[in-house]
Design goal:
alpha/beta; 9 helices; binds S-adenosylmethionine; Rossmann fold; binds zinc ion
Length: about 280
């Protein structure tokens, strides 16, 4: 079955439709579909050059780490919360903004489908490496579209999404509000105060707690916050995978990086906040 294509032309905002192996808008702007299935909707004018997103190494590290299930309790909690909010709906459109390599995208799609909600899913990430890996998690017949594009300029029509989720990705209130339908649901996952504190203790002389504050979003009604806490133990290469998928890796001194590389075992807390909001 051919599914409706929901991305819009990032140049002129008109709907795109499939024409051979590329997507075209009525004005003739055209975007290639990669063999993996994602469509590259980044504007070719270099506008996004300062926001390249995760590189191949970071994407691979995140894939390796997440696939081992270290963050699965948070993924399960997120799925539970979404199903709880959305149960009873027959169909919906969900956007995963900054979907990365698609670990949560896939689990959320499966959870909603299992709950009997027919879900049309959109995933966007500015990193082509991430978009490619995310696209490969889905079969052609599944109603899932993955695009390479920026959260700050989403090729998605106004008021077209019932749900927007975003996990550890840049935040753009205007865009999230614009694409959400009235009555829509917004779910955001952020790190809790003690998230990865064990890793920070291992690499920093003066580890600091994450700042967690009230997170009001103008234009949305806060529904609830769901904390998810766990302790994980990592060995050998798993430690570097975790380190490389965090911003710490790039902000840490050579000495700190060496300390992480020398670790053979690391036990650390993980701590997340799932924040849920409704659009009136
Ligand atoms: C920490 S990762 C999280 C990925 C995924 N949500 C997850 O939790 O596994 C942040 C992601 O945001 C993407 N990203 C960074 N800037 C972006 C932007 N302006 N627009 C879209 N994605 C962006 C990166 O490429 C990366 O995949
Ligand atoms: Zn166009």
């Amino acid at each position: 079955m051919e599914h409706q294509f929901l991305f819009n032309c990032p140049v002129c905002g008109q709907p795109l439709s499939l024409d051979g192996n590329s997507f075209r808008c009525p004005s003739g702007h055209s975007f290639d579909r990669a063999r993996s299935g994602y469509v590259n909707l980044l504007l070719p004018d270099g506008k996004h050059a300062k926001l390249p997103g995760d590189n191949r190494q970071m994407v691979n590290a995140r894939r390796e780490f997440l696939e081992k299930g270290f963050y699965r309790p948070m993924a399960d909690a997120l799925c539970r919360e979404l199903v709880r909010e959305l149960e009873g709906k027959d169909t919906l459109t969900l956007l995963d903004a900054g979907c990365g390599e698609g670990y949560y995208t896939r689990l959320v799609y499966d959870a909603l489908t299992a709950a009997g909600i027919s879900t049309q899913l959109l995933g966007l990430d500015i990193s082509k490496f991430a978009a490619e890996k995310a696209a490969k998690r889905f079969r052609a017949e599944e109603p899932v579209q993955i695009g390479a594009a920026s959260i700050f300029h989403m090729p998605v029509a106004d008021a077209s999404c019932d749900v927007v989720i975003t996990l550890f990705a840049p935040f753009c209130r205007e865009e999230f509000l614009r694409v959400l339908k009235k009555g829509g649901l917004f779910a955001m996952v952020i790190p809790g105060a003690r998230h990865l504190f064990g890793l920070k203790q291992a690499v920093y002389d003066q580890p600091y707690l994450n700042e967690v504050q009230e997170y009001p979003i103008e234009g949305l009604t806060f529904l609830r916050s769901v904390p998810v806490e766990d302790t994980i133990t990592l060995r050998d290469g798993e430690i570097m995978d975790l380190f490389m998928m965090t911003p710490y890796y790039y902000k840490t001194s050579a000495e700190g990086q060496r300390r992480a590389a020398d670790l053979t075992k690391l036990t650390t807390e993980t701590s997340f906040e799932i924040l849920l909001y409704g659009k009136d």
